[in-house]
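Thread: iron/sulfur cluster complex, take 2
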Amino acid sequence: MIRLCQRPGASCGACCGLYNSRDHGREAVRAELTRRTRELRRVERTLPAFREAAARLAAAGPAPLFPTVRICPLLGFLDEAETRIGCLAHPLVTGGPDLRDAGAYDVTTCESFLCPSHAWLDDEEASLTELASGDFHLYGLVVTDVPFLRAALGAVAARTGARVERRHLEQAPFREALRRLLALKEELEPGSEGLFGAFRPGRDGEPVPRRIDYQAIDRSTSPYDQILTCVGADPRSGNDLDLLEEEVRVRLDGCAAAMRTW
Ligand code: SF4
Ligand code: SF4
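Output below.
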């Protein structure tokens, strides 16, 4: 099975509550991760000390956007340059003790949990996401939303006539153009369907299809319906459908233009 949490060029912490705050923009998320990382660096690597630090960090941290989803204060940066995120209580990080019981869940849960993307994404899709995302913030938003990723890659293929492959992402202009398209996920209103849509399973465990009610807003189905549906471009989600539709068009044009240059 592919591993998505830690890849050579990307890391994710979505299931540790990374985006579960009203302001889940890059800067706010980064500031919170830095705060935790610096504080935990000074904490003795014992369970009682980590428990106390976790409680302190959580109390001073952002309130959850969705109260039923936990935010773990032990997620932080793993490297000095603050590019890779991960669990600061994991034995590989602490250098010995497993301190994950001090977090939002417990060792068994943290050790065994794999989000549904692990069952759906193939290796190529995973590495396209890794290469195109640019950093942990966008990577985590996209890798946890398989329908969005597939809709975006499918729209690029439909526009350019070429299936997106790893070799395309070796070209910086195309990589940037695809990153811009995927970055729609970062520009949605707080609480939008599209933000956490990937975590909405039906009774059978499969994702519930999302749908824009075009009739209710008296307009025809968008040619970019799949992407727009995935990002929650429905007025009920607080997003502006026309604005997002235009953004999708412009960003797909950008992908097509970048692919044409070589
Ligand atoms: S959301 Fe999925 S990919 Fe991200 S850290 Fe959790 S299990 Fe890994
Ligand atoms: S303790 Fe568990 S929930 Fe917390 S950061 Fe580590 S893996 Fe994530």
